[in-house]
Amino acid sequence: MISLLRRSKLLALTLTSNPKTLRPFLRLLSSSSKFPEYEMPSVTWGVVQGRKERLVSRVIISDYLKTIGIIPDELEQVELPSTVEVMRERVEFLQKLGLTIDHINEYPLMLGCSVRKNMIPVLGYLEKIGIHRSKLGEFVVNYPQVLHASVVVELAPVVKFLRGLDVEKQDIGYVLLKYPELLGFKLEGTMSTSVAYLVSIGVSPRDIGPMVTQYPYFLGMRVGTVIKPIVDYLVSLGLPKKVLARMIEKRAYVLGYDFEECIKLNVDCLISFGIRREALASVIAQFPQIIGLPLKAKLSSQQYFFNLKLKIDPDGFARVVEKMPQIVSLNQNVIMKSVDFLLGRGIPAADVAKMVVKCPQLVALQVELMKNSYYFYKSEMGRHVKELVEFPEYFTYSLESRIKPRYRRLQSKGVSCSLDWFLNCSDQRFEERLQADNIEMETVGPSFVMGGKLELPGNEVVSDKEDESDDEELYRRTVSL
Predict the structure, then answer these.
(1) CA 107, CA 122: separation in Å to the nearest integer?
(2) In the 8-state DSSP scheme, what is residue 279?
(3) Which of 6, 44, 207, 264 is the most exposed place for a label (fewest CB within 10 A)?
(4) What integer is the mean pLDDT of 48-63?
(5) Residue 341: which of 330, 323, 356, 326 has the closest Cα?
(6) Over the stretch 170-200, which tens digit does the pLDDT of each residue have?
């Protein structure tokens, strides 16, 4: 023990007597840090205080914190620095980041973190992984517990895990700013199980990364109490798992809707407004957001509007929602532009109502495109408006890529037919019809679903891909995905 004390005294004498030996330590303390605008804290380690001195220091520091508006009650069990100067440096450091006294009062335990040992290493790492320095204060406000974390043991493994999920390197900072609590999760816990479950129901592993970037919160959701109940319920409504998986890939935020207070409530609301149970799966697949909206108010407003302005009764409105559920969020001024255009062409209001019920997509079209299509219809094709009432889907087809080319082909062949006959089929089917010796007799026209296949009577399907499964058919009908 005596020899150890002698060695310590000798080392201290050497350091103080030889400036060259001391210089590296002085450089360490005086050099600018990762954050040059912040002054490095005073060196207080190595100061040994007795019990009495510690109590006196704690009282002095508590009094200082009270004078600047910080309530020190939660710091009773926290080891505090030995001097007021060090505490003042911690407070000033946090204030330079952008934190206010109110922010510190929300989580005063951050004052137990050393600027040198905790704050600077953590903030330096966060900046390194893509969180801009100007956003560091916001990050600490949202998740102050990060200041207690070890970069090597806690932060770096989470970042590595996110990269392993195919989150792009440049998106890591964005993801963590959206959901900073990710840095506090255990890798083998919730994050791993939520990803494994989603993959098990058909979500593509390569889409997990984009999903995390879009909606990282699902990584913190428990499978048994949050994710699985939602999946099971939507499947019970008729959504195939394959379609549901595609929907979650593109709209991961549906997992964040409250199951009881939002999803189930909105499904019951749809049924109460006349949407048929067998149509629920299609409605949700086309417009997943519908299960997360304040739906009752929106449906009530739109139903009243459709009845008042378009003379469409509640049953007709329900059919409109089934075919185009986005109608619940469509601005009423936008709807009236298309309706006014049709009324202005001399089409009776009752016929306009029939057209909207048959093809709700009319009310979401750009009036300018409708004008062009109508002008071609009247001036070039010379047809009666009655045909538009019978086949309002005409306005949904591209004038340049479908209507004009096919009409020119009909003229060259000298074929006279209905709008339905030459527009409502695939390119291959259209050519087959033109090559036929006679024009097929028309039966009941096919049903129209925007963005998907056309279902003919007798369950015959017209499509460019004839071998698709029923699940894929429903997916292709999903307009908004």
Answers:
(1) 17
(2) G
(3) 6
(4) 76
(5) 356
(6) 999 999 999 999 999 988 888 999 999 999 9
Token duo for residue 284:
């949700």
User: How do residues 323-378 score in pLDDT, each as one tens digit?
Assistant: 999 999 999 999 999 999 999 999 999 999 999 999 999 999 999 999 999 999 99
Please list, in sequence order, all residues whose beta carbon lies within 8 angstroms of the beta carbon of residue 161, skipping any fewer than 6 positions away.
187, 191
Query: Rounded distance, CA 138 to CA 14, Å?
Result: 46
- In which element (H, E) is residue 121 found? helix 120-128
SS3 content of the chain, % helix, strand, coil (to 5): 70, 0, 30
**Residue 181 to residues 97, 205, 338, Cα–Cα distance (Å):** 19, 23, 47
Q: Tokens standing for 401?
A: 């890529």
DSSP codes joined into one string, 399-468: IIIIIHHHHHHHHHHT----HHHHHSS-HHHHHHHHHSSSPPPP-SPPB--TTS-EE-GGG-EE-S-TT-
Q: Give pLDDT, residue 418.
A: 92
Segment 310-335 shows an average pLDDT of 96
In whole angstroms, what is the distance from residue 229 CA to residue 109 CA?
A: 37
Mean of the pLDDT values across residues 110-124? 94
Structure token pair of residue 280: 């629920």
CB 355 within 8 A of CB 391: no
Predicted confidence (pLDDT) per residue in 243-278, tens digit:
999 999 999 999 999 999 999 999 999 999 999 999
Q: DSSP class of residue 391?
A: -
Residue with tokens 């030459």: 422
Cβ-based neighbours of 19, under 8 Å, separated by 6 or more: none
Burial letters 364-395, b for 16+ CB under 10 A, else e: bbeeeebeebbeebeeeeeeeeeebbbbbbbb
3-class SS at 1? coil
Amino acid at 310: L
Sequence-distant (≥ 6) Cβ neighbours of residue 271 within 8 angstroms: 277, 280
Residue 318 burial (CB < 10 Å; 0-12/13-18/19+)?
buried
Q: What does the CA dihedral 3, 5, 11, 13 come to, rounded to 10 degrees? A: -120
Q: What's phi and psi for 462, nearest 5 deg? A: -105, 120
Q: How far is CA 140 from the centre of its chain?
A: 23
3-class DSSP assignment, residue 311: coil
Of 198, 151, 158, nearest in space to 175 by CA: 158
Give the gyration radius of the chain's Cα atoms: 34
Beta bridge partners of 455: 447, 461
Q: What is the pLDDT of residues 131-150, one digit of tens each?
A: 999 999 999 999 999 999 99
What are the φ/ψ torsions at residue 37 (nearest 5 degrees)?
-75, -10
